[in-house]
Amino acid sequence: MTRTPLRPLARILRAREEGDNPDAIERENLRRRHEAMRDKLRLRAEGRLLVLSLFFVSAFAMVGLRMGHLAASEPSEPRSASAGHFIATQRADILDRNGRILATNLLTHSLYAQPPQMIDKARAARELVAIFPDLDEQRLLRQFSGERKFIWIKRKISPEQMQQVHDIGDPGLMFGPREMRLYPNGRLAAHVLGGAGFGREGVHSAEIVGVAGVEKTFDEFLRDPANAGAPLQLSIDLTIQSAARPVLWGGMKLMNAKAASMVLMDAHTGEVISLVSLPDFDPNKRPAPPTSGQASDSPLFNHAVQGVYELGSTFKSFTAAQALEDGLAQVDTLIDTKGPLVWGRYKIRDSHRMPPKMSLADMIVKSSNVGSARVAQEIGAERQKDFLRNLGLLEPSPIELVEARSVRPLFPSNWSEISAMTISYGHGVSVSPLHLAAAYATLLNGGRKVSPTILRTARAEPGPRVLSPEVSIAMRGILRDVVRHGTATMGEVPGYNVAGKTGTADKPNPVGGYYEDRVISTFASAFPAENPRYVLVVTLDEPEETSGLEPRRTAGWTAVPVAAEIIRRTAPLLGLRPAIEPDLVNAVSLTSN
Amino acid sequence: MTEMVHGTIPVRGGEPVLPRWWRTIDRWSLACVLILFGIGLLLGLAASPPLAERNGLAPFHYVERQAIFGGAALIAIVLTSMMTPGLVRRLGVLGFLAAFAALALLPVLGTDFGKGAVRWYSLGFASLQPSEFLKPGFIVLAAWLMAANQEVAGPPGRFYSFVIMVIIVTFLAFQPDFGQSALILFAWGVMFFVGGAPINILIALATLVVFAGSFAYNNSEHFARRIDGFLRPEVDPNTQIGFATNAIQEGGFFGVGVGEGQVKWSLPDAHTDFIIAVAAEEYGLVLVLTIIALYATIVLRSLFRLIRERDPFIRLAGTGLACTFGVQAMINMGVAVRLLPAKGMTLPFVSYGGSSLIAAGITVGMLLAFTRTRPQGQIGDILINRGR
Questions:
Q1: Most buried residue, A181, A332, A398, A542, by CB count within 10 Å?
Q2: Range B355-359 average pLDDT
Q3: Across the strands, what pairs with A520?
Q4: Can you give the three-state secondary structure of A329-394, one letter per residue?
Q5: pLDDT (tens digit, 9 = 90+) per residue, A439-473?
Q6: Which chain B residue has the Cα nearest residue A51?
Q7: Pairwise CA distance, residues A337 & B263, whole Å
Q8: What is the rounded distance in angstroms from the CA atom of residue B249 to the CA atom of residue A193?
Q9: Cross-strand partners of A312
Q10: Helix (H) or strand (E) holding B223
Q11: A65: Cβ–Cβ under 8 A, 6 or more apart, which residues?
Q12: What band does A86 get if pLDDT is binned at 50, 70 and 90?
């Protein structure tokens, strides 16, 4: 680049000759140079501004194209804008102890309407009512014509109903897949399973949540995706359950009872093999909880678990066992049973005349209140309370049913001597039949504590020792005698030596005192008596056996025959062989043809 | 003499102010700004009721405020655009000094509104973000210094402006406000570029920016998290970006309908940083492209008018203002479509925000003042060249 000098010598000299100021030439050249520089910079700036413009054009175009690309693409999944809308739909199955299905899932469809897309609302409403007669046409039409854009019509519909709705042909009627909980065995084991309902609902799925029974207790487990669909196996045996329920139902009807319950428990592990409470319900159509009247009158009420009753003379076994355990008496020790026993202003008497002295065994066999009360006086209140607590009769049952958690046994806060005396024959302490079954299992299995469970367990280690094995064996003998020639002779089942104790307790009147003509009759039994493997407790609420001249309510006439029939039918199913007694030649043939 | 003058109409120095303003102003850009402001109000009707509901105010509380601030911003545009470039420069530099003082006092008197960065002054009825006002002031100051550099024996203005830029960027990065500091950096870079920077210095600066970026990435968790979020290939549907993307997709070409949009209920920044997502969902691609076209019109028209400009100061300042304005809009929309990492930046005139609206008004007012049609010395050119 050639630079013009600011003071070209030729021009300076000429200017001097002409008398001009040569500085003007310098300034002029300086100005020119400056202008040239500015021009150069301006040209450069023009180019760079063009570059900038191009940059902006392409940048805005890119944003626009990207917007267009996004707008043209489908949303990856339709979703509501709220977070945390994921609904887990897989719920694990529930099986019985042999792997048969008690509860599973079935894929059905839900039916909903989107009124803005409906064509002929009146026709759709009319035809829907024809398919689902329980719907109200006027109401449907009102909903379709209203403001709402989304209406649930049916939560679950069958494939046939779905096809019929399809045939209506209205585009505003839509289906969403919907898993429902299915209990294929209906009423069998209704109280154990409880039931399930829908939790959070979406169009595409709904959450199934347990509302009662094991469905609720193990709700988290059943819904946990981490289990990968591993089923929940219960200790319930479906075969036993289905054999026992009709017998109990028949017994309840025969004995004109209001309600009935039975618990069949493994005497060693505490597994509940069968649990029936009547009246029952179909968990597929779980009825609404009662809003009026007593909770115990609802079919939802689990009499075996939720019902706490004074179970009467069945408690005498505990009194006798404690007397034996503490060394206060032997099986043949004579007890003063002369009644009535007067204690302060209370009088304890027996239901019928008894000899003035009886052995401890006879006291149980004949069921003497007076004798039992006298033994309790010997034992004392404190020790009695501890013993019953060790048997688990004073705590809520640990069984895995939600209902059991809230059921506390009732007992006097001040456990006085008179309390101890009445409690010794089962008045003053209220427990559930399930409590009683677990306590009898402990009593008769050799003295190891049993805690009831509804789960199939391979639990091997026995519970803590409550009784010595000798006492347990003695109790087996005494209770066997009760069936052989005591209050429960109707409980004899050929081939299966049943041991047990009856209990007939007057029902407490809510107003105060006890009813004269309403009882809870209980038979707590175990079989086979030599080494009990199962404990069965049958309870009838307000039974009345009317075949005689006057109504009979004692357990020996009501609960015992029902229990005997249940044992007769279920013991072979449980895999027990009939005991062959040599003197009964005709009972079972030894030779195979 | 006296008689001759008495009673005559005083001679005015040129044509009246308003007609000359109307004749020389860039009317297209002005119209674009007004349309953008209208769109902002329209979208505010959709986007701000959820916020108002959350804060327990009347549904259109924020729309009313936006309208009031918008009025103030329009007055600022008109007044600023009527000034001569010299007056703009004088006031711009004074404004810069005031805004810089305010920025420096932020750690003492400012508030963070619970958002983790101290950027605002709470004035009771409104909040003020000094960095919004600092930007136009800084651009004017830097343009003045760079233009002075082009004078023969002028001061080393480029160097001075560089030093000032570094100071401001440091201040902003400590708030932390990386969005504004990036804008300042960008504005200075553009002016430096147009001001005739040698190409090797530009390359060196680009390298420096890369190093500064990686330094910030390694040392600021705030910054690193945003970059990481951007670099992850799959988009988490429960982030703001996820919701925005989904909203744009839901909207399609013509939108889901006025008031039917859902994204405004789930995006906390639906009325500011992600207003374009609301626009896309409710009005579809049509409105989005309109908005982009409006911004592009303003920027490109200004740049083309500045190409003809001969005064270096006007050219540089105008370039800086136009590019900052355009880039801010571009970044805001680029974030929503995931072209750029998440960055809190408002969409000028469209997003809700009092101080950002008035600052944008001042920026555009200055830009319009600089792009007014004025004699460019073409006649002088002809005469001088003939004289040679």
A1: A181
A2: 87
A3: A505, A541
A4: CCCCCEEECCCCEEECCEEECCCCCCCCEEEHHHHHHHCCHHHHHHHHHHHCHHHHHHHHHHCCCC
A5: 999 988 888 888 888 888 776 677 888 888 888 98
A6: B194
A7: 85
A8: 46
A9: none
A10: helix B221-231
A11: none
A12: very low
pLDDT tens per residue, range A332-376:
888 888 877 888 778 887 777 788 888 888 888 888 888 888 888
The residue among B352, B216, B163, B200 whose CA lies nearest residue B273 is B352
A48, A70, A79 ranked by CB distance to B194: nearest = A48
A352 class by beta-carbon count within 10 Å (0-12 exposed, 13-18 middle, 19+ buried): exposed
User: Is the model more confident about A67 or about B114?
Assistant: A67
Option in A49, A52, A70 nearest B249 (CB): A70
CA distance A518 to B109: 83
Task: Specify the pLDDT at position B229.
Answer: 67
pLDDT (mean) for A81-106: 71
Q: Is the pLDDT reported for residue A89 higher than 70?
A: no
When mean pLDDT is compared across A234-248, A400-414, B281-295, the lowest value belongs to A400-414
| Range list of H helices, B308-353 | 312-336
Q: What domains, with CATH codes, occur in chain A? A: 87-233 (3.90.1310.10), 240-287+295-570 (3.40.710.10)
Does the pLDDT of residue B320 top 90, yes or no?
yes
Backbone angles phi and psi of A356, in degrees to 5? -70, -25
Cis peptide bond N-terminal to A528, omega within 30: yes
- Partner B, chain A 24-53, Cβ-Cβ below 8 Å: 30, 33-35, 37-38, 41-42, 44-46, 48-50, 52-53
Reported in sequence order, the residue ranges of A88-171 that DSSP labels E, i.e. its strands, are: 94-95, 101-113, 151-157
- Residue written as tokens 């703001």? B240
Rounded Cα–Cα distance for residues A341 and A370 (Å): 6
Which residues are CB-contacts of A237 (< 8 A; sequence separation ≥ 6)? A96, A97, A98, A273, A274, A573, A574
pLDDT above 50 (res B155): yes
Question: CB within 8 A of A190, min separation 6: which ones?
Answer: A183, A280, A281, A282, A283
| Tokens found for residue A87 | 């609904």
Burial of B259 (0-12, 13-18, 19+ CB in 10 A): exposed
Report whether pLDDT(B42) > 70: yes
Work out the average pLDDT over B230-238: 63
C-beta atoms of B303 and A33 within 8 A: no
Q: Report, as an integer, the average pLDDT of A412-425.
A: 86
* Side-chain-side CA neighbours of residue B59 (13 Å): 5
Residues B158/B145, Cβ–Cβ less than 8 Å: yes
**Across the interface, do A73 and B323 touch by the CB < 8 Å criterion?**
no
Query: Side-chain half-sphere of A33: how many Cα atoms within 13 Å?
Result: 16
- Shortest distance between the Cα of B122 and any Cα of chain A, in A, equals 32
pLDDT (tens digit per residue) in A567-577:
999 988 888 88
The answer to whether A588 and A495 are in contact (CB under 8 A) is yes
- Type and span of the H or E element at A211: strand A206-212
Per-residue pLDDT at B6 exceeds 90: no
Please state the pTM of the whole predicted model. Answer: 0.54
Q: What is the pLDDT of residues A1-19, one digit of tens each?
A: 456 677 888 888 888 888 8
Write B114-122 long-range contacts (CB < 8 A, 24+). Answer: B116/B222, B117/B175, B117/B176, B117/B177, B118/B175, B119/B175, B119/B177
ipTM of the complex: 0.87
- The reply to whether A68 touches chain B by the CB within 8 Å rule is yes
Distance from CA of B228 to the nearest CA of A (A): 21
Q: Is B23 left (phi over 0), alpha (psi -120 to 50) or beta?
A: alpha
Inter-chain CB proximity B248 and A67 less than 8 Å = yes
Coil, helix or strand at residue A496 = strand
